[in-house]
C-alpha cells in the first residue's frame, strides 16, 4: 500500500538580488518517488542537493512550485488534508534536537504534550511516556530532566520518542542522527529498525552518509543538484549509472566506518 507519493515535484525559492531584482533558485526539480507501508527509503545526497526542501514540502512547511505531494492519494498541499490528519500521520525528526525541544519543559511535559493533543482520552499518559522512553533506550528517571541536562544523543532519543508518541505511519528523519557518535547512531538505528518491523512504520531517512543507510534502508534514492539521479535496492557498484552515486559508493567502500 502506497502511503506517500511525490509526483514531479519542483520547488523554486525566490532570491532577492540587488536593486530589487528577484531570481529563482531551483532547489528541487521534477522529483518523484513513493513510500509504501513498512518501507524505509533513504534520500542521500550532498549538502545543498535539495533533501531538506523535500522534507519541508512534505510537511507543508514550504509550498511547492509544481507537481503533487499525495498522502494515501490525498493532496497534501490543498485543504483536502487537515493539519491534524497530516501531523497525526507524518512526523519529522530534525537534526538539531535542541531546537526541537522546549528548553523550559521537562521530558515528562515534552512527551505528554503530543499524547494529550492527539489522544485526549488517554488516561495512562504517564505510563505511555515511560513506555516511549523505554522504546528509545531511556528510562523513567529521565522524565524529570530538562533538555539542557541531557546529552546530544539522549536529546535526539527524546525527539524520536516525541515523534513516536503521535503513533504516526511515517517518520521523516532529516539528518537526525548525523551529529551522534557511531555507537549512538548504531544503537538508535537498531531501535528504529525494531520498531519498523514490529509496528509496520515507514521511514524517509535523509542523510549525506550512504554507509548509514546500508543495513537500515530498504531502498536508496540518490539526489544530485535537486534531482533524483538514481534509485537502487541492491548494493552492487556495477548497477549504478550516475557518476555521483558511483562516487558515493566508492567513498563509502574506502571509509573504515562500519555499521
Ligand atoms: N529559504 C530558502 N531560500 C532560498 N534558497 C534556499 C532556501 N532554502 C534552501 N535553499 C537552497 O536550496 C538548495 C537546497 O537546499 P536544501 O536545504 O534542501 O539542501 P540539503 O540537501 O538538505 O542540504 P544539507 O544536507 O546541507 O541540509 C540549496 O542551494 C539552498 O541554498
TrEMBL record:
Keywords: ATP-binding, Nucleotide-binding, Transport. PANTHER family: TRANSPORT ATP-BINDING PROTEIN. InterPro entries: AAA+_ATPase (IPR003593), ABC_transp_ATP-bind (IPR050319), ABC_transporter-like_ATP-bd (IPR003439), ABC_transporter-like_CS (IPR017871), P-loop_NTPase (IPR027417). This is ABC transporter ATP-binding protein. Residues 4-250 form the ABC transporter domain. The keyword Endoplasmic reticulum does not apply. Coiled coil: none annotated. GO terms for biological process: transmembrane transport. The keyword Transmembrane helix does not apply. GO terms for molecular function: ATP binding; ATP hydrolysis activity.
Amino acid at each position: 500500500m502506497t502511503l506517500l507519493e511525490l509526483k514531479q515535484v519542483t520547488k523554486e525559492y525566490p532570491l532577492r538580488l540587488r536593486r530589487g531584482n528577484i531570481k529563482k533558485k531551483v532547489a528541487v526539480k521534477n522529483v518523484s518517488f513513493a513510500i509504501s507501508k513498512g518501507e524505509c527509503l533513504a534520500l542521500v545526497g550532498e549538502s545543498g542537493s535539495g533533501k531538506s526542501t523535500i522534507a519541508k514540502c512534505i510537511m507543508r512547511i514550504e509550498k511547492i512550485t509544481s507537481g503533487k505531494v499525495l498522502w494515501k492519494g490525498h493532496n497534501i498541499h490543498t485543504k483536502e488534508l487537515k493539519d491534524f490528519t497530516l501531523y497525526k500521520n507524518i512526523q519529522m525528526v530534525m537534526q538539531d534536537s535542541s531546537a526541537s525541544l522546549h528548553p523550559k519543559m521537562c521530558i515528562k511535559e515534552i512527551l505528554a504534550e503530543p499524547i494529550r493533543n492527539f489522544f485526549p482520552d488517554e488516561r495512562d499518559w504517564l505510563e505511555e511516556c515511560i513506555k516511549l522512553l523505554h522504546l528509545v533506550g531511556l528510562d523513567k528517571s529521565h522524565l524529570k530532566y530538562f533538555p539542557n541536562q541531557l546529552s546530544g544523543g539522549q536529546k535526539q532519543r527524546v525527539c524520536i520518542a516525541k515523534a513516536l508518541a503521535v503513533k504516526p505511519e511515517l517518520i521523516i528523519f532529516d539528518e537526525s542522527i548525523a551529529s551522534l557518535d557511531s555507537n549512538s547512531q548504531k544503537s538508535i538505528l537498531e531501535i528504529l529498525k525494531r520498531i519498523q518491523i514490529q509496528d509496520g512504520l515507514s521511514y524517509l531517512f535523509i542523510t549525506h552518509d550512504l554507509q548509514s543507510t546500508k543495513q537500515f534502508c530498504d531502498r536508496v534514492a540518490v539526489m544530485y543538484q535537486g534531482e533524483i539521479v538514481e534509485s537502487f535496492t541492491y548494493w552492487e557498484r556495477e548497477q549504478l549509472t550516475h557518476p555521483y552515486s558511483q562516487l558515493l559508493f566508492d567513498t563509502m567502500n574506502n571509509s573504515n566506518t562500519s555499521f
